[in-house]
Amino acid sequence: MARRTVIDLERVIAGDRIAMARAITAIESDAPDSDSLLRALFRRTGRAYRIGVTGPPGAGKSTITGKLAAHYRRQELNVGIIAVDPTSPFTGGALLGDRVRMTDVELDSGVFIRSMASRGSLGGLSKKATEAADILDAAGMQIVLLETVGVGQSELDIAGAADTTVVVLVPESGDSIQAMKAGLMEIADVFVLNKSDREGADQAVTAIQLILNFRSIDGWVPQVLQTVASEGKGVTELAEAVMKHRRFLEGHGALEERRIARMRRHITELVADRMREDFWTDERRRLLADRLEELMRRETNPYEIAEELIAHFHGQG
Amino acid sequence: MARRTVIDLERVIAGDRIAMARAITAIESDAPDSDSLLRALFRRTGRAYRIGVTGPPGAGKSTITGKLAAHYRRQELNVGIIAVDPTSPFTGGALLGDRVRMTDVELDSGVFIRSMASRGSLGGLSKKATEAADILDAAGMQIVLLETVGVGQSELDIAGAADTTVVVLVPESGDSIQAMKAGLMEIADVFVLNKSDREGADQAVTAIQLILNFRSIDGWVPQVLQTVASEGKGVTELAEAVMKHRRFLEGHGALEERRIARMRRHITELVADRMREDFWTDERRRLLADRLEELMRRETNPYEIAEELIAHFHGQG
Predict the structure, then answer these.
(1) A302/B contact by beta carbon, under 8 A
(2) pLDDT tens profile A179-225
(3) Burial of B249 (0-12, 13-18, 19+ CB in 10 A)
(4) Does A315 touch chain B (CB under 8 A)?
(5) CA trace torsion A181, A268, B131, B166 (10° rounding)
(6) Can you tell me the ipTM of this complex?
(7) Which chain B residue has the Cα nearest residue A124?
(8) Which of A220, A287, A316, B80 is surrounded by the most beta carbons within 10 Å?
(9) Percentage of chain B with pLDDT > 90?
């Protein structure tokens, strides 16, 4: 690593912002000390309530997230926000725009905001977002908001790792159908039709409710709310719907179930990561490179090569 | 398996549609005989030219794909289409709509069309799409079109597995910025601004070209074309741009490089799949379940559990 990261565990637990920011940077960059940090912090986790906010691009997720944060701040809760931004590896950084709208919240010292960029690959990002949420949790944030664009499976995984998942849609025609196609309908505990002062809002709500008729998750029928988040309309009702879902989960033992499922996924990802690292040694990389030439001449096939590599791994085992 | 799949290798190679359809179904459902089939077919692959078509929902990808197919059919080439549809696990099937528009092509016996649905998880779908393309390739299709919604990393991987990748956008404001955020700009060899009879088309082309000023891939500067695919406008130019890119790749040895990279990815996925299967035995699943209870009491942490599981795997090695 070019930069040495010094992370003070006690300062993270005390909610020191610089220490929290450094800890998340360490996770993001796979720094050598991130592993021991997460290990040590883990027993401090489990107190924050995690709210996922997702939806198609342009639905107003950042605005909703910011307004929710401000709402919980008024209840004197500490709020942390992880905003996952699909990033262009080509521009080299997350695009601004979305983040700018959140500045009014950022100025409040009770809110910690952090963007995490995907840097061209979402592989491992849902794991990293969970770990960043763990850090905010251990640092005493009572509410952690996970905001992400709901456009693909990895992004859905991030939002799905929350205790309550809010899906934000807009009245535009076909939006709810697209959302359904993208798998958003399945992960929603609360629906928000934002920009509901626009034409088509009522029809969109009806469409969502029609789709929802087919579904209830463990006895919870997802709520459908309307907001005009830019004007603050409907935000209080949204925050209340989230807390209603929280009470529902807590009352049915379902919160623990969700959290166990989240940890099972996290461990599965840790195992897969470690196994991949152990597998792809320089030696096996070279073996693969050699075989690729034979493969292009059609003297072997991908299945034979995979088997040979695995046999090699076990031989070394 | 509830249904016995009998796949005749020779019939697939002869281009028999029923045999091809069965072979793809076998891959999709991880049927026991799909592995031996793919092994046997592999040496027949490498002749088809693979064209990825991707872009945001509603951009007109299916129409473009259908028109391209019709164009290549007029040149008396055999054309295969793999359309990857994000599917709702909740509705249980791919949504129609998109597919309907392709019927004029479907009626032509020279075109083989197959939808592959993600059934709620895109994990492994890019591998399966590559394998389905291998089957069409072995069956003598000279052109294989891979159509997918460009909304997430897994979906990009599918389109990126092509020899030439076409990204379809529409003039709507902000679309090109969203495309850039979603990583579409990086994988495009050819850009199509579809529905370019709509307002804002010229500005959108300018925006795309501005972004492209920062980029050329191995000496190829992506082309930007305008189409009104529903009326057939610009399709010939698009088909020619694809072939121009093909000649460019072939002239610079870059086609072989791309294909080697694709096969490296495929083998890496085969290895990861196999390793995951080998790892998650009933015994280790039980071990994880036991530890999850301790984890909820914060008596251990996910990192310790992952290590214990890996140690157990190597002990069994």
Answers:
(1) yes
(2) 665 567 778 899 999 999 988 888 888 888 877 776 666 688 889 99
(3) buried
(4) no
(5) 50
(6) 0.86
(7) B153
(8) B80
(9) 54
- The answer to whether residues B5 and B31 touch, using CB atoms and an 8 Å cutoff, is yes
Q: What is the DSSP string of B149-186?
A: E--SHHHHHHHHTSSEEEEEE-SSTTHHHHHHHTTHHH
Record: contact B267-A309, CB cut-off 8 A: yes
CATH, domain range B45-252: 3.40.50.300
User: Which residue in A46, A123, A309 is closest to B153 by CB distance?
Assistant: A123
Say if CB A235 and CB A71 are below 8 A apart: yes
Distance CA A189, CA A184 (A): 10
Residue B266 near chain A (CB below 8 Å):
yes
CB contact under 8 A, B180 and A215: no
**Two tokens, residue B70:** 């019709």
The residue extents of the domains of chain A are 1-44, 45-252, 280-316
Distances (CA, A) of A49 to A190, B127, B302: 15, 36, 19
**Is the per-residue pLDDT at A119 higher than 60?**
no
Is it the case that residue A105 has pLDDT exceeding 80?
no
Query: Does this model's pTM top 0.90?
Result: no
Residue A153 contacts B where some CB pair is shorter than 8 Å: yes
